[in-house]
Amino acid sequence: MRIALYPGTFDPITLGHTDIIRRASVLVDRLVIGVAINRDKGPLFTLEERVEMIETECAKLSEQTGTEIVVHPFENLLIDCAHDVGAQVIVRGLRAVADFEYEFQMVGMNRALDNSVETVFLMADAGHQAIASKLVKEIARLGGDVSKFVTPAVHGALRAKFD
């Protein structure tokens, strides 16, 4: 069974994330969405809220692709999370050159820890390259319309946080 891990904070999950999830899910038998518990980032949404949003969005994608998509919170090293879920592949999305520089360093460190786990990069769709959770939260906080960047359910969750 081909298992991949797509890690992130997903605070909140955006259309850019779901694009990567949809495209990655056709490459594997099981796609694990690793939700990072990163207290240093001070997420807007609780872990439970993020997991619920991701499960809701991924249920539709799982039906469409026929791939099992599961959500797995983690707080340990990414490579250890990959071992925990049996992933042979880590999926990462790239939007711009700046993303690549950071991801390049991460791949090097992960390979030094365990070179049996491969990292695969998927380029963001051109229509989603500008989307970043951090920017979506800032726009929503300032009263802007983020409906072009997230699903209606996530948009509602953002509005509930800032209204």
Automatic annotation (TrEMBL):
<comment type="pathway">
    <text>Cofactor biosynthesis; coenzyme A biosynthesis; CoA from (R)-pantothenate: step 4/5.</text>
</comment>
<keyword id="KW-0963">Cytoplasm</keyword>
<protein>
    <recommendedName>
        <fullName>Phosphopantetheine adenylyltransferase</fullName>
        <ecNumber>2.7.7.3</ecNumber>
    </recommendedName>
</protein>
<feature type="binding site">
    <location>
        <position position="78"/>
    </location>
    <ligand>
        <name>substrate</name>
    </ligand>
</feature>
<feature type="binding site">
    <location>
        <position position="92"/>
    </location>
    <ligand>
        <name>substrate</name>
    </ligand>
</feature>
<keyword id="KW-0547">Nucleotide-binding</keyword>
<feature type="binding site">
    <location>
        <position position="103"/>
    </location>
    <ligand>
        <name>ATP</name>
    </ligand>
</feature>
<dbReference type="GO" id="GO:0005524">
    <property type="term" value="F:ATP binding"/>
</dbReference>
<dbReference type="GO" id="GO:0004595">
    <property type="term" value="F:pantetheine-phosphate adenylyltransferase activity"/>
</dbReference>
<dbReference type="InterPro" id="IPR001980">
    <property type="entry name" value="PPAT"/>
</dbReference>
<feature type="site" description="Transition state stabilizer">
    <location>
        <position position="17"/>
    </location>
</feature>
<keyword id="KW-0067">ATP-binding</keyword>
<feature type="binding site">
    <location>
        <position position="9"/>
    </location>
    <ligand>
        <name>substrate</name>
    </ligand>
</feature>
<feature type="binding site">
    <location>
        <begin position="93"/>
        <end position="95"/>
    </location>
    <ligand>
        <name>ATP</name>
    </ligand>
</feature>
<dbReference type="GO" id="GO:0005737">
    <property type="term" value="C:cytoplasm"/>
</dbReference>
<keyword id="KW-0808">Transferase</keyword>
<keyword id="KW-0173">Coenzyme A biosynthesis</keyword>
<comment type="similarity">
    <text>Belongs to the bacterial CoaD family.</text>
</comment>
<feature type="binding site">
    <location>
        <begin position="9"/>
        <end position="10"/>
    </location>
    <ligand>
        <name>ATP</name>
    </ligand>
</feature>
<comment type="function">
    <text>Reversibly transfers an adenylyl group from ATP to 4'-phosphopantetheine, yielding dephospho-CoA (dPCoA) and pyrophosphate.</text>
</comment>
<dbReference type="GO" id="GO:0015937">
    <property type="term" value="P:coenzyme A biosynthetic process"/>
</dbReference>
<feature type="domain" description="Cytidyltransferase-like">
    <location>
        <begin position="5"/>
        <end position="138"/>
    </location>
</feature>
<dbReference type="InterPro" id="IPR004821">
    <property type="entry name" value="Cyt_trans-like"/>
</dbReference>
<feature type="binding site">
    <location>
        <position position="41"/>
    </location>
    <ligand>
        <name>substrate</name>
    </ligand>
</feature>
<feature type="binding site">
    <location>
        <begin position="128"/>
        <end position="134"/>
    </location>
    <ligand>
        <name>ATP</name>
    </ligand>
</feature>
<dbReference type="InterPro" id="IPR014729">
    <property type="entry name" value="Rossmann-like_a/b/a_fold"/>
</dbReference>
<dbReference type="Pfam" id="PF01467">
    <property type="entry name" value="CTP_transf_like"/>
</dbReference>
<keyword id="KW-0460">Magnesium</keyword>
<comment type="subunit">
    <text>Homohexamer.</text>
</comment>
<feature type="binding site">
    <location>
        <position position="17"/>
    </location>
    <ligand>
        <name>ATP</name>
    </ligand>
</feature>
<keyword id="KW-0548">Nucleotidyltransferase</keyword>
